[in-house]
Amino acid sequence: MAFTPRVFSGIQPSGTLHLGNYLGAIKRFVPLQQQYPCLYCVVDMHAITVWQEPDALRHATREVAAAYVAAGVDPKAHIVYNQSRVIQHAELAWIFNCVARMGWMSRMTQWKDKTAGKNAEAESLGLFAYPSLMAADILLYKATHVPVGEDQKQHLELTRDIAQKFNNDFGPSIREQGLDPEFFPLTEPVIAGPATRVMSLRDGSKKMSKSDPSDQSRILLTDEPDAIAKKIKRATTDPEALPSEVEGLKGRPEADNLVGIYAALSDTTKDDVLKQFGGQGWGAFKPALADLAVAKLEPIASEMRRLMADPASIDAFMADGAERASEIAEATMKDVRRIVGFVR
Asked: Structure pTM?
């Protein structure tokens, strides 16, 4: 079956957005909207797999939506909304909970990382099962492409497994309903760019994270220019000069991270960056990176502040997006309910 090309992606509103969120996801949302119809979701249902203060969740949800638009996503031409407004996400997730296997979930790297050395029995069921909701997010719209970072590839592979198992398990019923046997697509990942996984500014072996106790480990999208410059100036590096070729970055995680950030912000490659800065020290490179980061991020931060000053406007375009998303979602669910045997 030839599915209509469609992109879906989402970000959790579980803290202030940082450079890793921008380079790993939001920055890539913009060019994709020139190629495909896109749905960009604020996945607030995912956020509550761990405790969220309700007021903080509402603020963060609006902030993520504002970041999408400030970065260049068009909420009129495409669909920007928050997940909880479209109830079919939860409905399809329950059906997928009954399709997916416990073993699949327990092997998910993020689950193992979060529960390593801890009492897994104390974690929420939502934290264990959320990859099933992620699959529902994507397949509800029969999305053919999902922009993901390297660390999310496993979740997309699980989505493909769930789609395949649903298609196989319900094959006879799908055919009885006169539907194509490949009811759900095997969604493809879109992984591109030199900084799809941005690392901590304090430790190049760790991913840039909202939860890191050190504020110096990350650049927030809402940081003022001075704060951005100071964080880059203080970023951990090694004593060696920059190499002239990418091969020379091996075994130098902090250097590799900063070069990758420069490449991603300037829409070039690490090779291009090293052609320009190879042989130079950090005293030359860090100020150049700071200037570039400020030039790229300050307009986004400024627009986010403008949007956040009028939360009703954000709620309005999310409500409009949810209405349009619901139309697509309900069309899928009408077929799914018949396929699984629900009486309506």
From this structure: 0.92
